[in-house]
Specification:
The chain is an alpha+beta fold. The protein has one domain (about 1-215). About 35% of the residues lie in helices and about 25% in strands. The chain is built from 6 helices and 11 strands. The chain has a 7-stranded antiparallel beta sheet. Strands 1-11 form a two-stranded antiparallel sheet. Strands 4-5 form a two-stranded antiparallel sheet. Strand 2 and strand 3 form a beta hairpin. The protein is globular, with a radius of gyration of 18 Å. The termini are far apart. About 35% of the residues are buried.
Length: about 220
């Protein structure tokens, strides 16, 4: 038994390296869509270095997200917000890890190997970032509708289940979500799945945030 444990521990670095190589390699392979999007709807993929989120217009072409996420869902709604940010992830890790400084090994391992519930993170934005940590996409109306459909389906239940007072700040909130987080189905892969569903270019498998940013449009 001890021998098996030692062999398993010895194999961990090799498995971690294989995971990184596969993640980077498959993330570099483009799938879906064109790389010269010229649609009328401006959307963004925004990364904080380890998590990539989908940012959509707060109101565009008949879609008004304030109907599902009204001001009372937030401690203090951002005045003049123009966009809304959506991210998916394992409940405990996502809600307790605002930045890399908050990272705890136990929480991270629990997210990867424990069968836990997931959440949707929703935040109001006044202006998405334009830089190395943001990817700007000019989506068609049909793609925008597909993204909206995908995001709405990620929330648990017909009625939104809000975690009151659990946001990172006054302008964001967490909701119960569907699906299970794993080393394969990561938060960043969820964002890529949204893009694939809408026919927008992304990587074949993107467990890492920057893999999504590689496939810039325009």
């Amino acid at each position: 038994m001890l021998r098996r444990l030692l062999l398993a521990l010895a194999a961990l670095p090799a498995l971690a390296l294989l995971y990184v190589v596969l993640g980077l390699g498959l993330g570099a392979i483009p799938v879906g869509g064109r790389d010269d999007g010229d649609g009328p709807v401006e959307i963004f993929i925004v990364s904080n270095g380890y998590h990539a989120s989908l940012v959509l217009p707060l109101r565009a072409h008949g879609i008004d997200w304030t109907e599902r996420h009204p001001p009372e869902h937030f401690v203090r709604p951002a005045p003049g917000a123009s966009h809304i940010w959506f991210g998916w992830g394992e409940r405990d890790f996502y809600m307790e890890t605002r930045t890399l400084a908050d990272l705890r090994i136990g929480t991270a391992l629990g997210a990867l190997f424990a069968d836990k519930e997931t959440v949707m993170h929703v935040a109001l934005w006044m202006d998405p970032a334009h830089g190395a940590d943001a990817r700007r996409i000019m989506a068609s109306r049909a793609q925008h509708l597909k993204l909206t459909e995908f995001v709405r389906a990620a929330f648990a239940g017909p009625e939104l289940q809000l975690y009151h007072g659990r946001g990172y700040g006054p302008h964001d909130a967490f909701y119960a979500a569907v699906g299970r987080y794993s080393a394969i189905a990561t938060c960043n892969e969820w964002t890529s799945r949204a893009l694939r569903y809408a026919g927008i270019r992304t990587g074949l498998w993107t467990p890492f945030a920057h893999s999504i940013l590689w496939h810039r449009d325009g």
